[in-house]
Amino acid sequence: MSYPKLLENHKGTTIFDFDSDQYALRQRRAYYHINDYPILMHTHNFYELNIVCEGEGRHYIENKNYPAKKGDVFAFPPKIRHGYWTAEKSGMSIFHLLIDKKILTRYHYELNNFAGFHILFEIEPLIRQQADDAQVFLHLDDAYFDEFLLKMDELVRLERETFRGEDTLIALRSVCFLCDLSRLISSDARIDNVKPSSEEALCIVKTTEYMNANYNEKISVDELAQVALMSRGTFLHSFRKLLGTSPMQHLKSLRLRYAAEMLESSNESIAAVALACGFFDSSHFIRIFKEAMTVTPVEYRLSQSGKQKK
Fold it and tell me: What average pLDDT does the segment 179-198 reach?
């Protein structure tokens, strides 16, 4: 099957905004996208989960593309360019679940009980962007697919109804759905089509799981290399090849993300946030945070508080 190497960018918008009235995305949090293809390259400011339900085609992420068939699961954090293409005769049906960042912040601690959640939305999309042959995305076999299809149908049904408390129920069902998928990606069932070339990726994924579980502790490169069962040099090379960054830079980004979530969702002091997220002290945390976010932790908390009031 011939397919385009690259897809065009979406002409309607550069980034889909969850709160924009143009596309009414808050009224389409769960739906099936059927036979209207290609889905041109686009980004958005929310998290998205896709499951291929029928047909086959190609999944595009940044400048890479992969086969997409029934049972394949693709997840996207904000600001990642992606799209889909299919041959006219084959058609496709893809389940879409759109997830507001605020929901993931609210249920951060519950979701973080599953190492697979971090892999699903943060690590695996990075590997897809960087590696040509390391395919470690989740694939649902027929038994798992039938189980999850019932849950997908339920989410779509709820989205079509209007009732008091619908936002709360859809948010909770979405979180449970993500927990179920995260459980799979953390287990032996996470990949049924692992290639020998993906074994390196799985070793690196173990180190990201380790960082995610221990980000508030002191972690060294040598320690991570031991987790990966690699020499220090091989580990550093493999990590950068697969994730496009160094282990310590990834760890810093992880700590900053969790710090931002704490600033949004709690009233903990800046010192407490710094300690909880693995920074040496408050001054070190404030300096690193401002370098990355262009504002201080206090300014960030105030800006997020203003958005929530709106």
Answer: 62
